[in-house]
Design brief:
about 750 residues, alpha+beta, TIM Barrel, four-stranded antiparallel sheet, 11 helices, 43 strands, globular
């Protein structure tokens, strides 16, 4: 294709869009190609890509080409469409490549002192550290947290590489003029101390939502000066520490710096500046939809070739690998896209691998497919997972490890089997003479050699098989000392943990008061329901009392019975209390809110909040685990967090306690009631079932009235609580429970 000159900087790429006519009147659109930074000087260029047809029934397909900006014309010379065939033998050919590119022959010559009987000398040869990179992004809040030693131990057991993802410009914990990345540097230092290699992610991210707002108001010259200053600062604090830098993340999908400087090659200047300041790290482009999707694969090839030709210190291509959730990776398509990228001649790293399936056994199969294809591909030097523990990643259905007790699921065990067993070298042999020669074949990497004599370890040696080395000869001598040596011990990866919840009592605020008078002391309560919230993070729904009522409690459940909710809280609207429920991150279903309301009228009500001449005080408190004291009886007790991470809330006779599930703040909300002769008791159920949707319930005793209903689990993941019937509180379990975890408990406040 070619096009006429543009009067301005091209802000939008050429895109290929596929329109499918589905059954009925619906249409589906898919991107299948992209070309960024097209200018008339490029002349004709190839706009290519691939797509997977949807499983839905469709009757017509149209291919569109969309131009970048108005008044820019382009010509189409030729169009072709061809099918990518499946490869039923992909696994066999992949393992043939693995045997060829990941392993080498080596020889060991061993001699012994005369006092040793060679028939009792056993040699153990074990690969301890792959030359190939197997890693994960680090969860900053957990790696250095003393309460999470098992997170660290699993990380060090599973991986030899790590990505520190908090070097991003927007993650600056200081100010514009005095940036602070101390936590990122401390994490990097800890990883280096443990012998891991570290990738820095990322120095720049030239997309509006991922660049500080103040940067976007700069002039082109100001931006250049600011970027140079950031390069100086970031290279100073990481000098000599990092193996890789993602320099300007996802450049195919956002060219903010190029637009601001009016220079389509400006990122190449950033690469040169970073390399000039710190020559050690290998510098990467990093983008998505280049392997897990095919819409921008060809565009990435063009970009890689352009950077390579510019001689700007680009080392390799980062291919993110965010596969569509609940869609099986296709090895033939993966290889088809990798073959395209390999034409650049640049090394590749899979930098952000994710895939998801709710069935952990299917997930294990899918991980094996993706890992095998990547490990077998010659240009790929390493694979980084974008998280492995369900507490610190985007999709719970993509985890290798689950729960507060770090249960290694089927996918995690499959990963370990591949990396530690099938793709590892472990050899045991016995000498046949005082001078023995062995020839082996093993994976590239660092090896331990343990010499045992009559079963006791007496000597330990090391050697490395470097990539590309062939027929290496290792010479070892076993001396006559037969004293037993102490071998290194393994970290307690699977040991149970117990978190200490530090309860705070500060920052309590009174939101407001409500009261009601009646000529009777009869206690009556009712339940008011809100509508459903919208779907999505932070979507909420409200419910209020009717006239003459006092609110005593606020609780909620999710419609689909899952645990993705931020909780509930009280707020005041024109002086009247409102119960609000909020959907959480990753929520798909809408939140369904139910609230306990109090009446002093006993004609049409089910539950009473406060007896005659009753008063309610609404309070809020923030912290990691909060205890909010009441001067009167606690009627309603609930919790709220910004991050859908909490264990829930439970009342005591005179306080409301909310507890987080992890490291984020949690807010405690309580309704404190007082009235003449008011007597309240907290009643708690036993733990409910371990499956999602299982319930636990507790009822008030005869003569008592339910005025508050909440849910609690030491291990979080609850779907909420609601009143049922006249006097019963029901709590709902929000996730399948893993070994060692507690399920949901219902907690009721019963007053008389």
């Amino acid at each position: 294709m070619g096009k006429t000159p543009s009067k301005g900087f091209p802000k939008s790429p050429y895109r290929g869009v596929l329109k499918l006519k589905l059954s009925g009147s619906d249409n589906q659109y898919l991107d299948y190609a992209q070309h960024s930074f097209g200018t008339v000087q490029d002349g004709w260029f190839r706009l290519g890509g691939d797509f997977i047809t949807p499983t839905k029934s469709w009757t017509k397909m149209r291919l569109y080409i969309q131009g970048p900006d108005p008044h820019i014309d382009f010509l189409v010379d030729d169009v072709s469409l061809q099918e990518i065939p499946d490869d039923p033998n992909w696994n066999t050919t992949a393992y043939q490549r693995i045997e060829q590119i990941r392993k080498t022959n080596f020889f060991i010559d061993i001699t012994t002192d005369d006092n040793l009987d060679p028939n009792h000398v056993q040699v153990e040869i074990s690969l301890k550290n792959h030359e190939f990179g197997f890693g994960s992004v680090v969860a900053d809040d957990y790696l250095l947290n003393p309460e999470y030693p098992i997170y660290r131990n699993i990380f060090y057991e599973f991986f030899n590489w790590a990505t520190v993802g908090s070097y991003k410009w927007k993650y600056n914990q200081g100010t514009r003029t005095h940036p602070n990345y101390d936590r990122s540097v401390n994490i990097t230092n800890e990883l280096l101390k443990q012998g891991l290699h570290v990738r820095g992610h990322n120095m720049f991210w030239g997309i509006k939502g991922n660049t500080p707002t103040w940067v976007q108001s700069l002039t082109g010259d100001q931006l250049k000066a600011t970027i140079q200053e950031r390069v100086r600062f970031m290279t100073n604090i990481t000098m000599g520490k990092l193996e890789h830098w993602d320099v300007n993340n996802e450049l195919l999908h956002g060219q903010l710096y190029e637009e601001m400087t009016r220079d389509p090659t400006y990122t190449q200047e950033i690469f040169r500046a970073v390399h000039a300041r710190d020559p050690k790290p290998k510098l990467f482009l990093n983008d998505y939809n280049v392997v897990a999707g095919g819409a921008v694969t060809d565009d990435y090839v063009n970009q890689g070739n352009a950077f390579k030709s510019a001689n700007c210190s680009l080392y390799g291509l980062g291919v993110q690998g965010h596969f569509a959730s609940y869609v099986e990776p296709n090895p033939a398509i993966i290889k088809y896209r990798l073959d395209k990228l390999a034409t650049t001649g640049l090394p590749m790293w899979v930098t952000e691998l994710t895939l998801a399936n709710g069935d952990e056994n299917i997930r294990a199969d899918w991980f094996e497919t993706a890992l095998t294809m990547f490990f077998s591909y010659p240009s790929i030097e390493g694979i980084i997972l974008w998280g492995f523990w369900d507490h610190s990643m985007g999709s719970l259905d993509g985890a290798l490890v689950n729960g507060n007790y770090f249960h290694i699921n089927s996918a995690g065990r499959r990963y370990l089997d591949l990396v530690k067993n099938r793709w590892s070298t472990n050899i045991k042999t016995t000498l046949t003479s005082k001078s023995s020669n062995f020839n082996f074949r093993g994976y590239y990497g660092d090896y331990d050699v343990i010499i045992r004599y009559r079963g006791k370890a007496i000597q330990r040696d090391h050697f490395t098989l470097y990539k590309g080395e062939q027929n290496k000869i290792i010479t070892l001598h076993v001396d006559g000392t037969t004293d037993e040596i102490t071998l290194p011990t393994h970290r307690p990866t699977y040991a149970p943990i117990s978190h200490v919840h530090h309860v705070t009592h500060d920052h309590t605020q009174t939101l407001g008061h409500a009261s009601v008078k009646s000529g009777t002391s009869h206690m009556t309560c009712t339940t008011r329901y809100s509508g459903l919230s919208a779907v999505g993070d932070d979507k909420s729904t409200d419910v209020m009392c009717s006239s003459g009522e006092v609110m005593t409690g606020c609780s909620s459940i999710t419609k689909d019975g899952q645990s993705f909710r931020d909780g509930e809280y009280f707020w005041l609207k024109s002086g009247s209390p409102v119960c609000r429920a909020v959907n959480g991150y990753r929520s798909a279903a809408r939140e369904y809110w139910r609230e306990l309301l109090g009446y002093l009228n006993f004609a049409t009500v089910l539950y009473l909040a406060c007896p005659s001449d009753g008063k309610a005080r609404f309070c809020v408190k923030q912290g990691f685990s909060n205890d909010m004291a009441c001067l009167a009886s606690v009627a309603g007790c609930t919790s709220y967090t910004y991050y859908a991470s909490m264990d829930g809330a439970y009342p005591t006779p005179s306080s409301c306690v909310a507890q987080n599930d992890g490291i984020s703040d949690v807010f405690t909300y309580g309704a404190c009631c007082s009235a003449p002769s008011l007597s309240c008791h907290v009643r708690k159920s036993s733990n409910g079932g371990v499956h999602q949707g299982d319930t636990a319930s507790v009822s008030c005793q005869s003569g008592e009235t339910l005025v508050g209903c909440s849910v609690y689990s030491e291990d979080g993941n609850t779907a909420g609580a609601y009143p049922s019937g006249n006097n019963t509180c029901v709590a709902v379990n929000g996730r399948e429970r893993f070994p060692g975890e507690q399920s949901a408990t219902a907690v009721a406040v019963c007053c008389s």
